[in-house]
Amino acid sequence: MELFGGILLAVVLAVVIMFFQKKKTKAAWQGVVTKIKEEADYYDDENNFREGQILIHYRTDAGKKGKIRMRRQHFGKMFPGLKAGDRLVKEAGEALPQWAR
User: Hey, which of 52, 67, 81, 93 has its CA 20 to 30 A from 38?
Assistant: First the structure.
């Protein structure tokens, strides 16, 4: 019975995560980058190397705050030269916003 409860909990959790991801993907917004924070590389408790990530903080035109976390290499490909004050545009159906240069 414990196995069934664990499987049921995992399925419910997966459905909840999918619901929120779908809601985020449907959303469309425009906003301004407020801060870009770079996290350092580190080793976790099992001595595995973890690459630092980039956190992009933004505020939408509607006043809502948000942040995007991505790997350093993806940031360099998608947003080279992005800085605070630059505009982002998130279209409905897209996972990430685009830089409105």
Answer: 93
Give the other-Cβ count within 10 Å of 86's Cβ. Answer: 16
**H-assigned helices in 1-101:** 2-26, 72-78
Measured distance CA(83)–CA(53) in Å, rounded: 16
Please report, for residues 15, 24, 82, the alpha-carbon distance to residue 18 in angstroms, rounded to integers and kept in the order given.
5, 10, 29
Q: State pTM to two decimals.
A: 0.72
